[in-house]
Amino acid sequence: MKHVFSYVAGFVPALVLAAGIAGAAEMTDGEKQLYEAARKEGSVTWYVSQTTTEFADGMCNLFEKKYAGVECNVVRASGQVIFQRLVQELQAKAVQGDLMSTNDDGQMLQLKEQGALAQFAPENLKDMVPVLRDMADKEHYWITSGVSPLVIAYNTKLVTEAEAPKNWTDLTDPKWKGQVAVGHPSFSGSVGLWTILMNDLYGWDFFEKLEKNAPQIGRSVADGHNLVVSGERKVALAPLPLILSDAATKKAPIAVVYPTDGALLPPSATGILKDAPHPNAARLFENFLLGPEIAEYFSKDYRYPLRAGVPLAEGMRPLDSYKTRSIETTEGISKLPDIQEKFRDTFGI
Amino acid sequence: MDGLVLRKLGRRFGAVDAVLDFDLHIKPGEFVSLLGPSGCGKTTTLRMIAGFIDPTSGSIELDGKVLSAPSGSVPPEKRGMSMIFQSYAIWPNMTVSENVAFGLNLRKLPAEEVRARVGAVLETVRMSHLADRYPAELSGGQQQRVALARAVVIRPAVLLLDEPLSNLDANLREEMRFEIKRMHDEFRITSVYVTHDQGEAMVTSDRIAVMNNGRLEQIDTPYALYSRPKTRFVASFIGRTNFLSGIRGNSMIDFAGFSVPFAAIGEEMTGGGPITVSIRPQAMKLSATEMAKDKTINLPGSVKQSSFLGETWDYVFQSREGGLQFRVAAPPADVFPVGTPAWLQIDPAQIVPITD
Amino acid sequence: MTSVSDTDAMSWTKDEPAKARVPWHQRLQPANLLWLFLAGILVVLIIAPMWTLVISSFTDAKTGGWTLHNYAEAYGKERHITALTNTLKMGAAVVVLKLLFGVPLAWACSRTDMPGRNFVRYSVFGAFIMPPYLAGVGWILLAGPNTGWINKIWHALTGSTEPLVNIFSFGGLVLVTAIGGFFLVFVLVSSAFEMISSEMEDAANILGAGPFKTAMKVTFPLVMPAIIGSALLSFLGAIALYGVPALISIPARYPVVVIQLTEFFSFPLRLEVAAAYSMPLLLITAALLGLQKLILRRKGYVSVSGKGGERRIVKLGKWRWVLFTYCLMVVSLAVVMPFLVLLLAAFSQSWTTGFSFDNFTFGNFHYVLFEHSSSRRALLGSIGLGIAAATVAIVLALFIAYIVQRRLLPFSGVLAFLAVSPYVVPGIVLAIGFYAAYALPPVALYGTYMIMALAFITRFLPIAFTTSSAGVRSIHPEMEEAVRILGGGRTTALRHVVGPLLKRTLAGGWLLIFVPAAQELSTAIFLVGPTTRVVSVVLLDLSEEGELEKLAALGSLLLIIIVAVVAVGMKYLGRDFMLRRS
Residue C255 is nearest to which of A218, A220, A348, comparing CB atoms? Predict the structure, then answer.
C-alpha cells in the first residue's frame, strides 16, 4: 500500500499532489458522514472487470489510504464472468459484492431492470467531465467510472508503423495469419460490444475472414497487449491505456493504432447493489472513484481522467481527436446473446 | 447358578447352524476345554462367551446374570473377562509392561498398584527382564507369555483361550501347556480353552467338551473321555481306536469269530439289535502264544502290517476266524515281523459300546 | 432376535429365570451412534449432491417442474456434441501418451540396471507435486507458437519463421494433460512390476521361452491389470481436468466438455443444462469402471498379488543408456523443462527477453506477496483447505474403513461403495452437484470456505478410504478384541491401538491428499466466492490477464510450500512413502 502510494506521489506533478492532499484533508460534510458510517461497516467488496487486477488493487490502496479503517477487497475477473457471479449471488440471495465496475454498461441496465441496483448520486458528479457524466444512467443507478477505448496494438519490433493495420478490416488481411489476438465475447464484456460493433459495421463476413487468420483467442481483453509485448502475436485488440502504459513505463515494444473506422468506446459503469452488505462503504467508494486521487491515478496510467481540468498524460490524444464509436446500451443487451453464439459457432470455441 | 452357564446356546450364520443347543455348566475355578476339529463351532462358542458374537438362540449366564441372549448382549468390555488370542494380539505399539498394564489402567487403578501387579505377573511368567521391550523384539514364546500375563493380571471372572499355542513350534507348545496349567493352578481362574489338539486339552483341562458339527458330543474328564468315549466321533477324535460291529444276543455280544458277555463289559445293556464298540489299541496285547483264558479274550491270527513309532510299535493284526483287523500298540521290545502268526488278547473291561 | 426363539431357549429347564434380558444400558455402546452419524455424513457429502445433480438435470429452471428440455438444450447443438467427441479423442490420446511415458519408466526403474533410477523416480515424483496447470503455463512459455523458447531457438537456428511446435493445438493439449498425470501410471505399474517374482519368469525360461517371449507371455500379462487400471484412471483424469483446457483449448480452439460446462456456468447461468451436460462424463466413468471389473475378473489376472520371491534386475548392457536417454527425455518434457522456464519467468521482468541481468527481478514475488489483493489470502486458503480436506477425509475414511473391514453394520458394503464412489465423479461435475445442493438457500453455503472444504473432502475421500482400508486390513482384529475383552470400548481400541498402529499409513495417505487438494482447480472453479479464492483460481485469473511472470512467481510459492510439507512428511515416513507402495 505504502509502496504504491509513494510511487504515485513521486510521479505526478507537485502541484497536483498538493491539491490531492488538500482534498484528502478537507472532507465535505456528506463525505464525513459516509466515512463514519463506512467505518462502522469496516470494509467494501468491489467486483471489477473494468481494469486489470493490478490497477484495481492500486485504486483500492488509494482508497484505504484516504479512508483508514475501511478495508477494500478487490474481486477481479473478466466482464461476463464477474457478471455471472453477481447474478448467481442475486439468485442465491447471498449478495457479497457491494458495487460493481464493468466495461459493459448493458450489464448495469439489466441489473437495474431486475431491481438489483441502488440509486446514488455521488457529490463528485459535479466535477466530472460533462460528456462522461451524461453517459451514465439518468436516474443515478450507475455512474460512468472510466472510458477505455478498444484499439489496435502492434509490436514495434516486429511491425513498422507503415505495415501496421490502419483500421479494423486490416486485421483480416492474410498477412496477419497466425499473428492476431482477440478476446472472447462470452468472457469479456468489452469484446462482446466490439463483436457487435464489427458485425454492425461489416457484417459477420468480418469474423469469417478473421477466422481464416487463426487469431489467438483469449478470455479477457487484458491479455492481448501482453501477447503483443512478448511478440507472441504481432497485432491485437487491446484497451488503449494498457498499450500506452506498457510503452511508456515499461519501455515495451508496443504502439497504438487508432482505427480510422472508429475505436470502440465502451463507457465503463459502476453501480451499487441494492442488497450490498456495506452500502455506506459502497457509496463512499463510488464517490471516491470520481474524486481527484483517482483522476490523477488514471491520468498517470494513460487513462482518461473523469474529472474536468485534470491534464492528460503525455502523448495521450484527447478523446475528441480521433474517431470513436459506441454501442447503445439497450442495443448491446439485445444483440449480445446472439453474437456470442455466432462467435462460438464460427471460432468453434 | 454359580459359574458360567450356557443354555441351549445356538448361533446361526445364514442357513448354517454353527452352534446348536449347546448346554454347558462350568463351575467357578474350573478349567474346561472345547475340543473339536476345525469348523465344529468351538471358536464361535468361545466368541459368544466373550461377547464378540451374539447368540441366535439360548443364553449365556455368569453367576446368575444373563450376559448374552438373542435379544441383546452385554458388550465384551463390560463382561470382566479376558482372553488369549490365537495371534496373541500383543499391541506392537506398546512395551511389554504397557501391554500388561493396559487392562489395569482401564480399570483406573492407582499407579502404584498397577506397577506392583504388573511386576508380580511378569515375575510369574518369567518376563520381568524384558518388561521394556517392544513385542517385535520378542520371540513367539515370549509374546505368548506376555499375552498370558496381560490376560491374568486383571483377575478376570473368566479367562478365555483361543488356540493360544497353535502358532508355536512343537517343543515350545509342550512347555507352554504346562505353563498354562501352572497359571491356572496358581490363580484358579474359571477358564475356557479352545483347541483342536487333544494333547493340549488333556494336559490343561479339568474337563473336556468335545464338539462336532456345532453340537456337544460329550463332556468329561480327560481320563473318562479316553477310556469311556460315548460316541463314535469322540472315540475316534481322542486317540486312535478300533471299531467293531456286533449283535446283541441275550447275554452276549456276538462279533465275527468271538463273543463277549454283557457282564464283562461292565455296562448295563439289553439284548437285541446291532451294536458298535470301541477298543483302544492299548487295550489289547499281542503275544506269540495263547495266554491264560480266564478273563481276557484270545484271538488267533497274524500280523499284517507293522510300523515302528519310537515309543511303540503300531501293528495291524488280522484274526483268523472272521478276518477282523485290529490296530494294536505294543512296547518296543515286542517285535513281530509281518506275516508272523500271533495271538491277540483283549481286556473285555476296555470294550466300550458307543453310539454312532 | 425374535421373542419366539427367546422363550424356546429359556423354557428348557425349571430353574430358568422367567425372562432373561440384558438391561439396555449395558448394551448401549456410544460407537453405535457414531456409525450412524458417519453414514449421515456420507449422505451429505455424496448422495445429496449427486442426487441434486441428477434431479436438477430434469428440472425446469423456471417452473421447477419435470422436463427433458435441459437435455435438448445441452445436446441440441452440433458444437456441444463436438466438445463431447473432442473430449473422448483427447482422453484416448492422453491415455496412449501416459502409458508411453509411464510404463517404460516404471519398468526401467523397478526391473533394470539403468543408471540414474533414483533421479528418474524423484523427477516423476516432481510431476506429482507440480499441478497440471503450472506445467501448462511452463509449456506455453516453452512452445508458444511465436515466442516460445523452443520456437525462438528453432527460428534462430534455421531462420524459419514457422513455429516448430505449437502448444495451442490438439497435440499440445494432449502433451500437457499427459505430463500432468503419468506419474499415476508410473506408481501403479511400478508396484505391479515389483510384485512379480523372478521365479515366474525363470519358470518360463526353464520351459524354453527366450527373454522376449518371457516378457510377452509372462511379465507383460502379469502387469496388465495395473496397466489397464492406470489407463482407465488416466482417461478419467484427462477428461475431467479443467486447468489445462482452460489455458490451452480456448486458444487452440479445440472445445472440450469442461470448457462447454463453463459456458453453461456463465451468464445466463444454466445450472440445469450444465447438470444434463455432465451426465455423459458420469456415465462414461461408470461404464469404464464396470468394464475394468469385467476384464480383471477373468481368471488369467487373478493371481497378480502373488508376492514374495526374489526380483532379479535385468541387465541391459549398452541398451541401458538408450533407456536412460528415453527416461531423461520424458522427465525433461514433464518436469524439468516446464519447471525451469517457470522459475526463470518468475524472476524475469519479461519472459520473452531471456535470462539476463537487466531482466532479473524480485518484483514478481514482491507483487504477489505484498501487492496483489488476493494472492496472500489465496495461499493461506489453499494450504488451509489442503490441510483441512486431508485431515477430515483421512479421519472420516478411517472410521468408514474400520466399519467396513470389521463388518460392524449390516450395510457396511454400502458405506464402502459410497466412500469410493466420488472416484467416478469428475471434479468439475462434483462442483456442479455441490453448487446445486448447497450453494443456494436454504443451505446457502455460497462463498464460504465450508462448501469448498466439503467438496474437497468428497473428492479425495476415495484416496483416503483406499489407504485407510488397506491399513485397517493389515491390523489383526484380535488386536482390538484384546482391548475390548480387557474392558475398553471400540473407541478406546481405535485411540490406543488402531490409531497408533496406522500412524504412518495415515500420514502417507494424508500427504497423498494434501498435495492435490492444495492445488485443486477443477472442483474449486465453480465454488470459490469473492473472498474465498484459492491459489489455483488466482493463477488462472493471472493467466487470463496474460501476467505469466507474476503467475510463475505465485506458482513457485505454492510449489515451495507444498514441497516443504512433503519434505517434512518424507522425513517422518521415509523417502519411499509413495513411490514404493505395495
Answer: A348
User: Using alpha carbons only, what angle is made at residue C124 by residues C123 and C128, rounded to the nearest 5 degrees?
Assistant: 110
Alpha helices (H) along C196-270:
198-206, 211-214, 220-240, 243-248, 257-264
| B193 in the same domain as B163 | yes
Does B308 lie in the same domain as B255?
Answer: yes
**Residues pairing with B302 in the sheet:** B318, B341
CATH 3.40.190.10 maps onto chain A at 2-147+268-316, 150-264+321-347
Does any CB of chain C come closer than 8 Å to the CB of residue B11? no
Give ipTM to 2 decimals: 0.80
Residue C541: its chain A contacts at CB < 8 A?
53, 76-77
CATH code, domain carrying B293: 2.40.50.100
Short-list A90, A198, A98, A113, CA closest to C267: A90
In this complex, the residue of C15, C22, C487 whose CB is nearest that of residue B77 is C487
Q: What is the pLDDT along chain C (582 residues), one digit of tens a residue?
A: 333 333 333 333 333 333 445 555 555 555 566 667 877 888 888 888 888 888 888 988 778 788 888 898 888 888 889 999 999 999 999 999 999 999 999 988 888 888 888 889 888 888 888 888 999 999 998 988 888 888 888 888 888 878 888 899 999 999 999 998 888 889 888 888 877 767 767 777 777 666 667 777 777 777 888 888 888 888 888 888 888 998 898 888 898 988 888 888 776 778 888 889 888 888 887 888 788 777 766 544 434 444 445 566 777 778 888 899 999 999 999 989 999 999 988 888 877 666 667 778 888 888 888 888 788 888 999 999 999 999 999 989 988 888 888 777 666 777 788 888 887 777 888 888 888 888 877 777 887 899 999 999 998 998 888 888 888 888 888 888 889 888 888 788 888 888 888 888 888 888 889 998 998 888 888 888 877 889 999 998 888 888 888 999 999 999 999 999 888 887 777 655 554 443
Provide the pairing of β-strand A324-325 with A263-264: parallel
Please name the residues in contact with A21: beta carbons below 8 A apart, sequence gap of 6 or more: none
Residue that the C-alpha cell 473506422 belongs to: A261
Interface test with B, best of C13, C475, C486 (most B CBs within 10 A): C486
Decide yes or no: CATH 3.40.190.10 for domain A2-147+268-316.
Answer: yes
With contact defined as 3+ CB pairs under 8 Å, the chains touching C are A, B
Residues of B in contact with C25 (CB under 8 A): none
Q: Do residues B220 and B35 touch, judged by C-beta distance below 8 A?
A: no
Is B75 in Cβ contact with C27 (below 8 Å)? yes
Distance separating alpha carbons of residues B82 and B89, to the nearest angstrom:
12
Say whether A75 and C544 touch across the interface (CB within 8 A). Answer: no
